[in-house]
Amino acid sequence: MDLILWRHADAQDGEQDMARPLTNKGRKQAERMATWLHGHLPKGTRILASPAQRTRETADALGLAYEVEANLAPGGDAAHLLAAVGWPEASGAVLVVGHQPTLGEVASLLLFGESSALSIKKGGVIWVTNRVRGESPQTVIKAAMTAEML
Questions:
Q1: Sign of CA dihedral 137, 84, 74, 147
Q2: Residue ranges of domains in the chain
Q3: For residue range 42-53, what is the model confidence (pLDDT) as tens digits?
Q4: Sign (positive/negative) of CA torsion 72, 119, 94, 53?
Q5: pTM flag (> 0.90)
Q6: What's the rounded Cα separation, in Å, for the pair 118 and 149?
Q7: Top-level CATH class of 2-10+19-91+110-149?
Q8: Alpha helix (H) ranges present in 39-123?
């Protein structure tokens, strides 16, 4: 299974956290990353987004259908995210558009076996896959990219 963790792009500050839209900078970040993702996403990739406006606007930049998943809202946890995507048993690829610190915690848990404060830049992606070598399950980094690098 491939799991692509995409942190929402830069958003406006505001008291209504779930309603914060992307800034102009954020829209550009989302567009750049969406262009890169279009060239790399496997056909049939399942896309999940948090219900927050900034994540939906980030996902909208792809121009592909996606599901809004309540368990991906700000304040969610790694266990609920991994359950929502079916890691590691699901087949194919899943793209999650979500938030810090949850995305970083998921990446840390999968890569290092423990949840720690790993940070993903706004608009950035960490792409991992799983495999078994001998009898040992492994998580492999396929890509780590920021919008500024594109």
A1: positive
A2: 2-10+19-91+110-149
A3: 999 999 999 999
A4: positive
A5: yes
A6: 19
A7: alpha beta
A8: 53-60, 78-85, 102-112
